[in-house]
Amino acid sequence: MFRLLPIVALLVGVALQATPAEAQRRLTGGVEGSGARPVPHLDRIGVDERLDQQMPLDVPFRDHEGREVSLRDYVDGERPVLLTFAYHTCPSLCSLVLDAAKNAVKETEWTPGDEYQVVTISIDPDETVQAAADKRREVLGELGRDGADWHFLVGSQEAIQRVTAAAGYRYFYDEAQEQYAHPAAFMFLTPDGKLARYLYGLRMDRSDVRLALLEASEGRSISTGERILLYCYAYDPEANSYTLMAWNVMKIGGGLTALAMGFFLFVLWRRERRRGGLLENDSDVPTERGDTSSGSASLREPKQVEA
To answer: Over 80: is that where the pLDDT of 281 sits?
Structure first.
C-alpha cells in the first residue's frame, strides 16, 4: 500500500525548484477552482527566506563522534558554509536531498572542509550519533575526494527548532505516517554566519553552487577571476538560478576595449616619438656640401700656381 506523505514530500521538493512562492501554485494546478486536489498540510512545509539574518551560532548539537559542537565551530569568519536539513533515516526525500548536495559538491572545484564547510543538521531529535556517523561515512565514501569533510549533527528538539526557525525552514512530523515532511532547500551562510542565499530542488547546477559560495564568501579569499565571474552573474529568484548580467558584461567589455585602444595608441605614440628623435639626430650630422664652418677644406679656394 502506497503512503501519501513520501510522495507529497517529493512533489514539494520538485516544486521548490522554482521558488518558494511558486511551490503551492504548481502543486495545486495554479488556478483556483480548477478542480486540482489540494495537498494536505502544504502550508506547514516550505521556506521563508531570511536573507542577511544572523543564524544562532551557539545552539548545542553533537557531531558524528558525540562531541558537543555548535554552528560556531564551523563558522570561522573566513569560509562560507553550505547548510542542509535532513534526517539520516529518512526513507524518501532526505536521501534525494543529500544526493543533490553530494553531486553538487562533487562537481564543484572547491573542496568541502578546505575552501568552505558543509553542515547537515538532522531534524529528527531521536536520531543517534551512530546514525550521523554512518551517514557521514557513506556520503564521504561516495564523494571520493581526498581531504574532504562533511559535518553531520544531531540535537534536541529545542535546538533543531531554533536553527530551522532562524533559517525559515518549515517542516512537520506526521504521526500517522511516522516520518517528516520537509522541503528540498539548501542554505548558504556567510563566513560570519548570516544567510546569504537559498537554492531549491533535487538537482543543483554546479555553476549555481559555485556562484552561491562565491556570493556567500563576501569576496574573502577569492581570486580576481572569481570576482569578475561574480560581477557578471546575479541570482534570479524567478528562475531560481544565477543568470548572466548583460549590462555588467558590456561594461567589462567596454573597459577592456578602451584599455586595448589606449595601449595601441600608446605604442603608436612611442613609435612616432622615436622616429622624430632619429630625424633630429640626422640633422646634426655634417655633410660634404652642408658644412659652412670656417677653415673647412672643402670650401677653401685652390692656391694659384705661378707660371
So the answer is: no
pLDDT, tens only, 156-168: 999 999 999 999 9
**Closest of 134, 121, 199 to residue 162, by C-alpha:** 121
Closest CA to 12 of 43, 36, 33: 43
- Whether the CB-CB separation of 61 and 153 falls below 8 Å is answered with yes
Contact 243, 207 (CB under 8 A): no
Residue with grid cell 529518512, as numbered in its chain: 90
Beta-ladder partners of 234: 243
Give residue-wise pLDDT tens across range 174-186.
777 778 888 889 9
**C-alpha 295: how far from chain center:** 84
| Sheet of strand 185-189, all strands in order from the earlier edge strand to the far edge | 151-153, 117-122, 81-86, 185-189, 195-200
Whether residue 203 is predicted with pLDDT greater than 90 in this model: the reply is: no
pTM higher than 0.70, yes or no?
Answer: no
Report yes or no: 172 and 108 within 8 Å, Cβ to Cβ. no
Which residue is listed with cell 536553527? 163
All structural domains of the chain, each given as residue ranges with its CATH number in brackets, are 4-218 (3.40.30.10)
Q: In one letter, which amino acid is 77? A: G
Residue 213 has pLDDT above 50, yes or no: yes
The top-scoring range by mean pLDDT among 32-46, 151-165, 241-255 is: 151-165
Give the pLDDT confidence score for residue 220 in this predicted structure. 59
Taking 70 as the threshold, does the pLDDT of residue 290 lie above it? no
Q: How far apart are CA 35 and CA 247, in angstroms?
A: 44
Q: Which residues contact 157 (CB under 8 A, 6 or more apart)?
A: 125
> Strand 68-69 vs strand 61-62: parallel, antiparallel, or unpaired?
antiparallel
> All 3 cell numbers of residue 263?
595601449
Counts of helices then strands in the chain (DSSP H, E): 8, 13
